[in-house]
Amino acid sequence: MGKIIFYEERNFQGRSYETSGDCAELTSYLSRCNSCRVDSGCFMVYDRSNFMGNQYFLRRGEYSDYQRMGMTDSIRSCRMIPQHHGPFRMRIYERENFGGQMHEVMEDCDSFMERYRMSEIQSCHVMDGHWLMYDQPHYRGRMMYLRPGEYRSFRDMGMNSMQRFNSMRRIMDSCN
Predict the structure, then answer these.
(1) Of 39, 53, 41, which Cα lies nearest the Cα of 5?
(2) What b-and-e string marks burial along 32-52, b requiring 16 or more CB atoms within 10 Å of the CB?
(3) What is the pLDDT along the chain (176 residues), one digit of tens a residue?
(4) DSSP letter string over 83-145?
C-alpha cells in the first residue's frame, strides 16, 4: 500500500494532507498543493480535479516544487497505482473505437513509429497491467496513466493537448 503526503507550500511547508489512496479533489483538504513526499508506492498526480489535466508519475521520493515536475498549476488530484504482479498485455489501435491497424503489446516500446510503423494511436484496450503512455519517443514528454480497461478515444478523455502517443512503458513493481 502506498503513502503520499501533500503540502500547501513548496519545500514541504504549510499544512499537510496524507493519503494512501485516490483523491479526486485535494482542495477539499488543502487550499493548494505545491510539494509532496511519497513514502511508499507509486502515484499519478494531476493538475486538475477528478484525475484530469497534465499527469505526472511519482515514485518514492521528495518533490519539493510542483513546477519542477513540469506541472503548470498546483497538484489537484492523485491516484494510487496498485502493484501488479503478472503479465502485461495491451492492444493498441491507430483509430478511435478500436479501428484501423492493431498490435498486441506485452513489453515496453520506446517508439511506436519505429517498432510498429504506426504514426497515430487513438484507442487501446488494456487487458493486464498498468502502463504509462508518453507523447514523445524514448519515454519522454507528457504522460498518461492507463489501467485495465477500454479506452475508445483519447480525445474524449481530455487528452486533446497531447498530439499523439509515441512510446509506452509498463509500471513494474519497483514502487516500493
Answers:
(1) 39
(2) bbbbbbbeebbbbbbbeeebe
(3) 799 999 999 999 999 999 999 999 999 999 999 999 999 999 999 999 999 888 999 999 999 998 787 777 789 999 999 989 899 999 999 999 999 999 999 999 999 999 998 888 889 999 999 999 998 999 998 889 999 999 998 776 656 555 678 999 999 866 65
(4) ---S--EEEEEEEGGGEEEEEEE-S-BS-HHHHH--S---EEEEEES-EEEEEETTTEEEEEE
Tell me whether strands 52-58 and 61-63 are parallel, antiparallel or unpaired.
unpaired
Q: Are the beta carbons of 80 and 41 closer than 8 angstroms?
A: yes
Read off the pTM.
0.89
Give the DSSP H or E segment for 62. Answer: strand 61-63
